[in-house]
Write the structure tokens for this entry.
Amino acid sequence: MIGLDWGSTSLRAMRLGPGGEVLELRQSAAGASTLHGRAEEFVAALDALIPDWHAGSAPLLACGMVGSQHGWREVPYADCPADEAALLRLAVDVDWRGRTVRLLPGLRCNGAAGAPDLMRGEETQVLGALQLEPALAPQACLVLPGTHSKWVQVQDGRVGGFATQMTGELFAVLRQHSVLGRLMTADTAAASAEAFEQGVAAARDHGEAGLPNQLFGVRSLGLAGRLALADGADYLSGLLIGHELRAGLAWRAARGLRGAALRLIGEPALCERYARALALFGEPDAQALSNTAPAGLWRLAQPGGLR
Amino acid sequence: MIGLDWGSTSLRAMRLGPGGEVLELRQSAAGASTLHGRAEEFVAALDALIPDWHAGSAPLLACGMVGSQHGWREVPYADCPADEAALLRLAVDVDWRGRTVRLLPGLRCNGAAGAPDLMRGEETQVLGALQLEPALAPQACLVLPGTHSKWVQVQDGRVGGFATQMTGELFAVLRQHSVLGRLMTADTAAASAEAFEQGVAAARDHGEAGLPNQLFGVRSLGLAGRLALADGADYLSGLLIGHELRAGLAWRAARGLRGAALRLIGEPALCERYARALALFGEPDAQALSNTAPAGLWRLAQPGGLR
């Protein structure tokens, strides 16, 4: 089968073997947000990336922002709790040169203050984690760090609910556009583990002062000469991830998941940062899983008969 | 006397009468951040704005970022608790065409997580408030909303301590540079009181979910069609101010100021927003004071004999 992990900023196409193994992977920058919501541009993106994968008749299965309001075609959200069947029921088919591309829905649940919470693409990574580690299915807390981090409750093989934290986006806009960024050097190569852990500890021990208060500390520590220019970004990263962990671990407790397995899913380097921060919060056992989307697409192809 | 309220982005010069009244006010965009830390540019800014105020021998008194690291000359911070005398002791004199300009220091205190907290200019506004309303001097909680809001403890006629909240800057960078801003119309004329209060209430009732989580609600409510494009900015403003009030009111309680007078100092329209938000937090009596810098400069001129 052919799987498409089609996010906002990138398209990853993969040919999966009979056991779900990745036979071939190709990637392009033709993310959904770059294609202006025009079907012909999505078609052209596939033409450009996988022209030689065109032969064959099985549908391609696609997850991510490709199914958003400004994607190839809008696919509604499935409501939590949701399993594979719930996702497949809402999938929408589009046409690529006579072949079917099946667009998967995202997931929706009730968030704080009556706001809905939403994901598109991460549900497939979550199902991939369950495929790779079946012991997680009865109950688990999965953390997917990123631009919009997701904290996910797995319960009885379904996604029970989740909570988004805009940590990565806050880091990017504060780093690039706020007064804090002016106190940081462009050189991020020499990451400071110490400054990062100092930021995490500040959030852990004094987070009740509020994030908007502690953010000012990045500036005042710099002005006071107590935080080197080269370390400002790491301190800020630690502060933001620390605030995510405060809220996320409280969320986990409120969902009754304190004793459940905790897993990180995402880029190894980012998961490593989160693992270090979690250890400072007294959670040293969070293992990381990476690149779970292929296994998720393979699992979703099973009940739908796409393989 | 001549007072200078010289911030990052603007310079306001005022001639004050014998009772502290403003006889004349002139303003320019020659803020300290635009003058490259060069003394000659600060001199030229005064040349351009008040050439005809040059006659006379009394020193001019200046507060704000003019005394920062990248100002006319760096003036150290006075440590809290601090009164007028403490400020004047650290003031630094510079020369403007043979006349003395006395640069006031800022204030420093211990903030959360061992980070220092800092202000430059607001201390003069605080002293102005005490000048205009002497009953505040024994004990008060003063809130100065803005890019970097300040919550200030007044105790026994001195500034006992304070806490900064980067609310205004967070609003600006999120509005202009994040995914949230893309869901907002440029038209901010038609402010929605309802969306603002909805944001305040979300922070008040569910703030423990964390600001980075609730920020995502601005997006998800918009995607779900439950927040109009024109209302997104007001909801975001309410959410951020609500989180400031959560942390600020907890700070006030921790400083033992729960029963003390609460005053807002700043632009009337912004103070009005804060007053509405405070009312939703059960604090309906926060009166506002505006333009207190002249009274503060006048008060500071008294012990130093500048008048």
About this structure: The longest strand of chain A covers residues 158-165. Residues 165 and 247 of chain A are 9 Å apart (CA to CA). Chain A is about 35% helix and 25% strand. The radius of gyration of chain A is 20 Å.
